Amino acid sequence: MKLAGHTILITGGASGIGLALTEAFAQRGNRVIVVGRDERKLNQLTERLPDTAAIVCDLGVEQQVDELVARLAADFPELNVLINNAGIQHIDDWTTDSAACLSPRIAREIAVNLTTPAQLTAKLLPLLSRHEEAAVVNVSSGLGLVPKQSAPIYCATKAAIHSFSIALRYQLEPTSVRVFEIIPPVVDTEMTRGRGRGKITPEALAASFMRSWQRNRYEVPIGKVKLLKALNRLVPALAANILRKG
């Protein structure tokens, strides 16, 4: 993929991994459209990167997602890259707090992490496929390969995104749309505050991905996930024990 000249939609692009990807692509001469719920963060982003467009949208609400798709088709027909980055993670103990675990937030976690990325991809494919060079980029997680016990829904959705990316890549092989998957380790973001050790920065993740993007390496394990993949293949029980406590 070329480094410049794309029009890119990044969900959750105003903070964390999404912000680092926004900056990396914007700095290389791409038009970036950022989607998020927090209007304040979006305004701060566009003040700092005035060539970036921002759209307020709650990705957990289907009607707002449909409105987003309609606006993109009308205002950004040149859109050729979709980056499904937005995600949420709840830490739950189903043995002691089952009422909270079974509350509507499960549906929201699944919607934001899995249902909406799939729906956005399906609804934007006709737009993306008009272009000679196009891509869908899904951000999954090392926890989608080997789960931890404290976030069962998050891990399940990221495992699904991993499988979705592979299957979608197979289907789109005859088309101009390439399918990338970023598989991060623990990244130092608001989501992981107070959790995990040995975190990498979002900027380091973005820099690593840009190298794979340019070389058309479609599955992109970042940092320690490279070791995790090898360990899970060779000694899966050890990989499970390492990741279990998160």
Automatic annotation (TrEMBL):
> What GO CC terms are in its UniProt record?
membrane
Record domain Ketoreductase: where: 6-189
- Tell me the PROSITE patterns matching this sequence: ADH_SHORT
The protein's matches in InterPro entries, at most eight in alphabetical order, are given as: KR_dom, NAD(P)-bd_dom_sf, Sc_DH/Rdtase_CS, SDR_fam
The answer to keyword Oxidoreductase applying to this record is yes
Q: Which residues cross the membrane?
A: none
> What are the alphabetically sorted keywords of the record?
Oxidoreductase
Q: Name one GO molecular function term.
A: oxidoreductase activity
Q: Which family does it belong to?
A: Belongs to the short-chain dehydrogenases/reductases (SDR) family.
User: What is the protein name for this chain?
Assistant: Short-chain dehydrogenase/reductase SDR
Annotated source species: Paenibacillus curdlanolyticus YK9
